[in-house]
């Protein structure tokens, strides 16, 4: 074979493709065409899936895809695409295969297996129509072709809208007409009897022509309410008046530039602008208080609108609050510490319990408070709340609101802080929820004094001497006077002050030639400045009292000022010649000076005939020595001329003088003294002073010591001193020893063993002798030395001390052995303590001496303000459990109203903080919260939490009052052992529901007992068994209701009522009406969806032919009405041969395809239950009957929910009639029928008109009709019976 012959292609494959390759290459042609085929098959698969779930026409789909697939195969052969180009025989085979496939999938080809007891229609495309049953037929050629004709041969297409079945009645549900009272949940109150309120009523799809409402008086229901009718015209008049008032209140056009819509208060605008298109508002005008309920509203179609059953409005008088009395201006001025607390009485009017908001402004610092639970006493502990309820015997809940009442409530206020105090009532709220801002709106007619009280609290004035005290007296020179300054501190509003000063002259003292007498004067200050008092006589000046314009004051230490007259200085001078063993070397002078140091002594020296010289010496003490040893020899004259002290200057001295012709030695000094400063010794009680002396020279020594007192001096000699350091005892001068004071001890001279006595003047010793002991006492009059402070707060106890600072104080608390001490630095110091009790001063000492405690001021009592407490009211029913200290309340049901009364002690208003806990599943407790509530009354109510079942614990954790507010003492809760603990068991309300909502099926006269082991009809209970359940069984055919009461011992019960049998067919509604358990609690709200279940009761399987005739036409469809619940099993005989047919829905249609006698022998339903024998059936052919709905017209009727429409069926033929009608969805598209919702059969009608009433939405039409002899349609096996319940 040559290469050329081998490469030659067959002629069949040599043809080129229809589309040349220069336009589209062959691979692309294959890809595009195969993709087109895949796309077609995908769309076919989608149509097949849609046909399974919708009511589309399967034969139409079959014809469409037959055409598409044939065109696809033919076009493929014409394109001649390489590798896809097949022979004509293959193309024909392809067409045959796709036709068979499309016919099987979409129902165009049906296979009759023939000869079997049951006809089987095999189709991959499941028809959405009812399947017809066929009697066996002869194998005619036309019938065989019809099986494969795809619906084109044999069975004609469906004929609709013919002369036998005409008319449609469509029912469309109009929107629901509703009326709701007070839709925005507003609260209303009447400011006065002349005012009125407008209560809105929200309407939906309603034009009212009349309205009725009832008004019940406030308080417990007593009698029938008053009913008021309002016509539609009156409603329009009220609405027009309201709109006119709104128009007047709106800003004018010229004010629109300044108008801001956000300035409007919420709800102040016309609310109708916010309504939906179907909504409108009307208002009820009300002039008196009461509980308003909307009873009835008729719309323009004379149909009652649906009224919200829970809508009611409580109209009460507006709450008010004011102070009982305004008080005068003088009463508004108070003194700090004058009185502990002040009570202001408030008159509060409104529906209890009320709450009041008030504010306290102290020195421009504002604090706001809220007091809740203001109500009167209620015998028996009955609570009045906003939603108090009374439950009638029929379970109807009536709500009532207490009537308005007036209460007088005290407000305790402290006035312990100086400054401005303003107490103002701000807002009052009643139990209904009305809140009135005081001094605004409704209360603006009240005087400001009725809602605001102002006080000016003045601080107490204080006075004392400045720069003068018993330890530091004032003095004056002879011929002058002393100015005593009294320091005064007072509130400017309390000025001027009246200060009472007492003068007591010193004993035995005279001022010049006058005898001094005591006196008492009252001096007035100018404003709050210091006061000056002139003292021109010696004595004691004391402040004995002070009083301001409004308040008494306190006298502080120093309250007394001694005044002394300073005498002129004098001196005692003793001249001595300085003679040493060798002779005179000069002179020495010993001076004893009297006056006030420092002293300056002036003397003159005259030598021979030379000019005299003036010299001076300054002495800081009362005694002074000096020597003058001239350097030159000669005759000297020494003369003293003047003396000065601190107060007087150059007082003339009369001599003395000494003459001397001026032609080492023993020494001594005090131990511890220095050359520049004298040694100071303080003595309190000793009569002798021990002084150590260091001696130098040759002993033994003789020592002369001079004791210089205020007005005298004495020289004491000590002889035969052997040691170089000797302690000598110097007696205290008698005057100083008696009255106290200062004196000096100076070394005068020393003599050694050779007899050379040498005068010396080393620094001496200044001795301060105190004979007036320091004192200490608590300040305050007898019976007023006490203070009350907060618990464990530091208390400052005022002291009055005399002596020199610092003071050391020893004290103790009476009853305790421990002694405490304190160091004080001010005569008006305070003693700080932190415990309550009586404090006693034991000892006192100042910087020098121990003192004594004044017997009349040695104690001071400190009391604590008791902390507020709470205890359970004795009227509250509770059992005390000693094991844990709790009060156990009687158990209650879930959701019940409950409270306990608490008796409070302390200073109202109170704040109560408590814990709420509940038992958990782990054996412990879970904290639910820590709420806080307020009360201004000593008895308050603690609301109990009964929202959820379980063991609930209430523990009062902390209580606050005016003295111990929670904000400042939140870290000091009540000790756990002292807390009030309350327990209560909250029972779960019983409930019941069906486990599922599956329908139950029973036969007529069956006992209501379980038929199987499924969970259908099982009731699940919650609560404590045993349960008592109330069931109602309502038959919708006879509208008869039976009630059953069953006791159930377990939480799950399947309905088992052997005493009840079903005596009527149709649907029965089983409803759980109520349930009770062992707790005795009313049941919880039952869910309507889970408390009902349906039972379908069927007659004992029955079959009724539509066409009751003995002779009938061949080809007619014999239809039977099947009574019962599908599926049915029908047994019949044809010409003596028995058959059975499974029927899924009614009516059952049997197409007669051969002559003979047809006898229905038996029928069963519900999985072959309720089987019954069927009597002989005969058929006679007569004129086909017809039926009309609404007399053959297409009627559209709009109804409201709850209404019914009458559907009239008209029949033509020979009664009795049996017809089948169906209800479909309203069609949203023209000429497209809606989904079938329900199919019903009405048998044995002996009139030519038949009416039914329905409240369901849909289109009603007749699908089949039979009279006494015939039925229609006769020959439509595919469309004869529609699927029911669709």
Strand and helix map with partners:
Elements (H helix, E strand, L loop, with lengths): L2 H4 L19 H28 L4 H22 L8 H18 L27 E2 L6 H7 L17 E2 L1 E6 L4 E4 L6 E3 L6 E8 L3 E9 L9 E6 H18 L29 E8 L3 E10 L6 E2 L4 E6 L2 E4 L9 E3 L5 E10 L3 E9 L2 E10 L13 E4 L5 E4 L4 E10 L4 E11 L5 E3 L10 H4 E7 L3 E5 L7 E4 L4 E8 L8 E8 L13 E6 L6 E5 L3 E9 L6 E2 L4 E7 L3 E11 L2 E12 L4 E9 L5 E7 L3 E6 L5 E11 L6 E2 L4 E6 L4 E4 L8 E5 L4 E9 L4 E8 L4 E9 L3 E7 L2 H6 L1 E11 L5 E3 L5 E5 L5 E4 L7 E4 L5 E8 L4 E7 L5 E6 L5 E4 L3 E9 L6 E2 L5 E6 L4 E4 L6 E3 L4 E3 L3 E2 L5 E7 L4 E10 L5 E5 L2 E4 L3 E5 L6 E11 L20 E7 L3 E4 L5 E4 L3 E2 ...
Parallel strand pairs: 1-84, 2-87, 3-88, 4-11, 5-12, 14-23, 24-31, 25-32, 42-49, 50-57, 51-58, 61-69, 62-69, 71-79
Antiparallel strand pairs: 3-93, 4-6, 6-9, 7-8, 7-10, 10-12, 13-15, 15-20, 16-17, 16-21, 18-19, 21-22, 21-23, 24-26, 26-29, 27-28, 27-30, 30-32, 33-34, 34-37, 35-36, 35-38, 38-39, 38-40, 41-43, 43-46, 44-45, 44-47, 47-48, 47-49, 50-52, 52-55, 53-54, 53-56, 56-58, 59-63, 60-61, 63-67, 64-65, 64-66, ...
């Amino acid at each position: 074979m040559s290469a050329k012959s081998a490469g030659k292609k067959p002629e069949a494959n040599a043809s080129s493709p229809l589309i040349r390759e220069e336009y589209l290459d062959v691979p692309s042609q294959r890809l595009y065409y195969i993709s087109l085929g895949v796309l077609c098959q995908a769309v076919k698969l989608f149509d097949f899936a849609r046909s399974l779930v919708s009511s589309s026409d399967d034969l139409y789909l079959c014809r469409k895809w037959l055409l598409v697939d044939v065109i696809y195969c033919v076009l493929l052969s014409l394109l001649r695409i390489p590798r896809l180009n097949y022979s004509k025989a293959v193309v024909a085979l392809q067409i045959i295969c796709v036709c068979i496939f499309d016919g099987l999938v979409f129902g165009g080809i049906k296979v009759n297996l023939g000869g079997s007891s049951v006809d089987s229609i095999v189709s991959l495309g499941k028809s959405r129509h009812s399947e017809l049953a066929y009697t066996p037929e002869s194998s005619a050629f036309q019938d065989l072709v019809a099986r494969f004709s795809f619906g084109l041969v044999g069975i004609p297409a469906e004929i609709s809208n013919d002369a036998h079945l005409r008319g449609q009645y469509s029912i469309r549900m109009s929107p629901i007409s509703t009326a709701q009272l007070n839709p925005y949940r507003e609260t209303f109150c009447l400011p006065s009897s002349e005012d009125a309120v407008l209560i809105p009523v929200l309407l939906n799809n309603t034009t009212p022509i009349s309205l009725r409402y009832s008004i019940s008086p406030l308080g417990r229901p007593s009698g029938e309410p008053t009913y008021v009718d309002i016509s539609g015209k009156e409603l329009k008049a009220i609405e027009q008046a309201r709109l006119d008032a709104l128009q007047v209140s709106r800003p004018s056009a010229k004010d629109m530039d300044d108008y801001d819509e956000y300035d409007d208060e919420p709800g102040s605008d016309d609310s109708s602008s916010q309504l939906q298109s179907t909504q409108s508002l009307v208002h009820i005008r009300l002039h008196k208080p009461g509980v308003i309920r909307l009873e009835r509203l008729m719309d323009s179609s004379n149909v009652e609108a649906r009224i919200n059953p829970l809508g009611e409005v409580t109209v009460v008088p507006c709450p008010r609050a004011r102070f009982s009395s305004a008080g005068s201006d003088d009463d508004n001025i108070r003194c700090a510490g004058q009185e502990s607390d002040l009570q202001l009485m408030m008159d509060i009017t409104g529906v209890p319990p009320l709450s009041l908001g008030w504010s306290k402004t102290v020195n421009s610092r504002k604090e706001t408070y809220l007091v809740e639970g203001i109500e009167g006493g209620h015998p028996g502990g009955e609570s009045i709340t906003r939603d108090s309820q009374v439950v009638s015997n029929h379970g109807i809940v009536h709500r009532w609101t207490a009537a308005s009442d007036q209460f007088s409530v005290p407000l305790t206020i402290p006035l312990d802080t100086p400054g401005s105090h303003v107490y103002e009532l701000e807002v009052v709220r009643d139990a209904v929820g009305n809140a009135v801002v005081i001094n605004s709106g409704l209360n603006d007619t009240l005087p400001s004094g009725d809602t605001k009280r102002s006080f000016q609290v003045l601080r107490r004035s204080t006075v004392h001497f400045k720069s003068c005290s018993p330890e530091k007296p004032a003095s004056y020179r002879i011929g002058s006077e002393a100015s005593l300054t009294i320091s005064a501190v007072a509130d400017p509003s309390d000025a001027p002050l009246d200060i009472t000063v007492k003068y007591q002259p010193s004993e035995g003292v005279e001022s010049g030639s006058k005898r001094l007498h005591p006196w008492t004067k009252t001096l007035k200050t100018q404003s709050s400045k210091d006061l000056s008092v002139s003292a021109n006589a010696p004595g004691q000046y004391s402040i004995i009292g002070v009083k301001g314009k409004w308040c008494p004051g306190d006298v502080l230490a120093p309250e007394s000022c001694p005044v002394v007259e300073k005498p002129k200085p004098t001196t005692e001078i003793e001249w001595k010649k300085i003679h040493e063993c060798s002779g005179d070397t000069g002179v020495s002078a010993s001076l004893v000076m009297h006056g006030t140091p420092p002293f300056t002594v002036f003397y003159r020296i005259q030598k021979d005939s030379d000019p005299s010289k003036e010299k001076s010496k300054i002495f800081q003490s009362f005694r002074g020595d000096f020597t003058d040893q001239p350097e030159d020899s000669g005759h000297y004259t020494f003369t003293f001329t003047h003396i000065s002290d601190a107060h007087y200057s150059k007082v003339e001295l009369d001599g003395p003088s000494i003459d001397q012709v001026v032609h080492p030695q023993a020494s001594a000094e005090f131990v511890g003294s220095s050359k520049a400063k004298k040694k100071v010794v303080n003595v309190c009680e000793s009569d002798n002073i021990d002084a150590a002396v260091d001696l130098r020279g040759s002993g033994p020594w003789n020592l002369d010591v001079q004791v210089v007192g205020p007005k005298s001096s004495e020289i004491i000699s000590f002889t035969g001193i052997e040691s170089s350091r000797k302690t000598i005892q110097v007696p205290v001068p008698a005057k100083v020893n008696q009255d106290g004071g200062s004196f000096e001890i100076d070394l005068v001279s020393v003599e050694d063993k050779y007899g050379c006595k040498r005068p010396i003047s080393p620094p001496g010793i200044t001795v301060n002798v105190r004979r007036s002991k320091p004192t200490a006492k608590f300040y305050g009059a007898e019976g007023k030395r006490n203070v009350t402070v907060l618990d464990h707060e530091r208390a400052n106890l005022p002291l009055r001390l005399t002596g020199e600072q610092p003071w050391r104080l020893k004290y103790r608390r009476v009853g305790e052995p421990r002694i405490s001490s304190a160091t004080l630095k001010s005569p008006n110091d305070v003693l700080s303590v932190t415990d309550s009790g009586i404090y006693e001063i034991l000892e006192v000492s100042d910087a020098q001496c121990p003192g004594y405690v004044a017997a009349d001021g040695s104690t001071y009592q400190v009391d604590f303000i008791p902390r507020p407490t709470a205890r359970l009211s004795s009227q509250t029913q509770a059992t005390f459990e000693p094991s844990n200290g709790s009060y156990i309340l009687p158990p209650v049901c879930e959701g019940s109203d409950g409270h306990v009364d608490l008796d409070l002690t302390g200073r109202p208003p109170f704040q109560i903080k408590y814990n709420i806990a509940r038992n958990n599943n782990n054996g412990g407790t879970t904290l639910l919260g820590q709420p806080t509530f307020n009360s201004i009354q000593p008895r308050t109510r603690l609301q109990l939490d009964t929202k959820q079942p379980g063991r609930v614990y209430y523990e009062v954790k902390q209580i606050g009052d005016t003295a111990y507010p929670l904000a400042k003492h939140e870290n000091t809760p009540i000790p756990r052992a002292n807390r009030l603990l309350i327990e209560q068991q909250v029972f779960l309300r019983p409930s019941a529901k069906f486990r599922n909502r599956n329908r139950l099926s029973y036969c007529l006269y069956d006992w209501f007992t379980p038929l199987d082991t499924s969970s259908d009809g099982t009731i699940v209970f919650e609560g404590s068994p045993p349960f008592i359940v109330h069931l109602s069984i309502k038959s919708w055919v006879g509208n008869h209701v039976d009630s059953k009461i069953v006791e159930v011992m377990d939480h799950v019960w399947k309905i088992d009522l052997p005493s009840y049998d079903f005596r009527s067919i149709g649907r029965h509604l089983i409803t759980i009406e109520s349930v009770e358990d062992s707790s005795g609690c009313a049941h919880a709200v039952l869910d309507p969806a889970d408390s009902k279940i349906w039972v379908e009761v069927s007659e004992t399987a029955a079959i009724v032919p539509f066409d009751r005739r003995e002779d009938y036409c061949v080809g007619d469809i014999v239809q039977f009405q099947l009574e019962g619940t599908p599926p049915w099993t029908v047994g019949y005989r044809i010409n003596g041969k028995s058959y059975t047919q499974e029927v899924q829905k009614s009516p059952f249609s049997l197409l007669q395809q051969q002559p003979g006698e047809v006898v229905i022998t038996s029928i069963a339903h519900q999985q072959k239950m309720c089987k019954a024998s069927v009597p002989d059936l005969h058929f006679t052919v007569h004129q086909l009957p017809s039926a009309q709905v609404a007399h053959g017209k297409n009627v559209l009727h709009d109804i409201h929910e709850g209404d019914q429409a009458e559907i009239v069926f008209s029949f033509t033929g020979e009664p009795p009639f049996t017809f089948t009608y169906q209800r479909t969805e309203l069609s949203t598209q023209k000429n497209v029928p809606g989904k079938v919702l329900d199919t019903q059969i009405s048998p044995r009608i002996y009139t030519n008109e038949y009416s039914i009433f329905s409240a369901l939405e849909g289109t009603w039409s007749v699908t089949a009709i039979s009279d006494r002899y015939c039925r229609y349609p006769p020959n439509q096996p595919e469309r004869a019976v529609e699927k029911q319940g669709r």
